[in-house]
């Protein structure tokens, strides 16, 4: 058990929150997974509700709302316990949060289903699909690296940014492996998804790929991951299938290329 010290002026709050978390009056238990699961589900459901009543307003995208609201709630609870957000996050949230994170891996593998359903397109255009994703990834890595350098990020910060082309479940462990911060990587992936959801239609028209379902799907899936795939599906079945294919293939490419790129650039 990991205890979080409660300051005297927070004693009442600490007692109430301890009871709510199912822990002792002295703090949160590292073995209690209920709180992390409950918080994850609640903030996501709130995001879904806001997204529905907001008629699809992009800032109410459930993943984005869940991230921001979850961080805010953890911050308030940490203050109430008289500890830091990082300590409270690791001891009270992670036991349940890790269970939620585990489900990201099979959910990512599920993208292979639309790939299988439209394997006729994959077989026909696989050289173009693979080459475009690889070239696009190399260009994005170079841009991310130099923009991060321009803004004065250290090696850990740059390493956190590099894997963001992959879906969150794959990008986070890659980030950790190359010396980055997985939480920052997750935030970057989610922000990418929100931006793509908001600007996806405009970007497709701006780059003149609105009449190219394969290109539109690959672009939205690569940049916006799961949310980008949902946006692509709104444009058509081929776009949605190509977006799902992009999520799978680009994640594999990122897993192979990003560690080598980070090592070449001396990040770890």
UniProtKB/TrEMBL annotation:
Keywords: Membrane, Transmembrane, Transmembrane helix
Pfam families with a match to the protein in the record: LrgB
The keyword Transmembrane is assigned to this record: yes
GO cellular component: membrane
Bilayer topology term: Multi-pass membrane protein
Subcellular location: Membrane
PANTHER family xref list: PLASTIDAL GLYCOLATE_GLYCERATE TRANSLOCATOR 1, CHLOROPLASTIC (PTHR30249:SF0), PUTATIVE SEROTONIN TRANSPORTER (PTHR30249)
Database matches in NCBIfam families: PRK04288.1
The protein, known as: Antiholin-like protein LrgB
């Amino acid at each position: 058990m990991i205890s979080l010290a409660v300051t005297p002026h927070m004693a009442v709050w600490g007692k109430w929150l301890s009871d709510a978390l199912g822990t002792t009056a002295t703090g949160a238990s590292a073995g209690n997974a209920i709180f992390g699961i409950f918080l994850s589900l609640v903030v996501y459901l709130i995001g879904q509700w806001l997204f529905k009543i907001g008629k699809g307003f992009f800032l109410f995208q459930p993943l984005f709302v869940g991230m921001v609201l979850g961080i805010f709630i953890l911050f308030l609870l940490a203050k109430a316990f008289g500890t830091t957000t990082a300590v409270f996050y690791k001891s009270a949230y992670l036991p349940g949060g890790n269970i939620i994170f585990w489900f990201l891996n099979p959910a990512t593998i599920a993208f292979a289903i639309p790939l299988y359903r439209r394997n006729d397109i994959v077989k026909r255009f696989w050289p173009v699909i693979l080459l475009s994703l690889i070239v696009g990834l190399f260009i994005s890595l170079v841009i991310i690296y130099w923009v991060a350098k321009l803004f004065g990020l250290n090696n850990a910060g740059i390493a956190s940014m590099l894997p963001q082309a992959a879906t969150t479940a794959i990008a986070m462990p890659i980030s950790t492996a190359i010396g980055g911060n997985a939480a920052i990587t997750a935030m970057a992936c989610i922000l990418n998804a929100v931006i793509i959801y908001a600007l996806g239609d405009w970007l497709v028209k701006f780059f003149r790929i609105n009449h190219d379902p394969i290109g539109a799907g690959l672009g939205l899936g690569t940049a916006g991951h799961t949310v980008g795939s949902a946006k692509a599906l709104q444009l058509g079945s081929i776009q949605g299938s190509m977006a799902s294919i992009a999520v799978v293939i680009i994640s594999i490419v990122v897993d192979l290329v990003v560690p080598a790129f980070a090592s070449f650039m001396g990040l770890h």
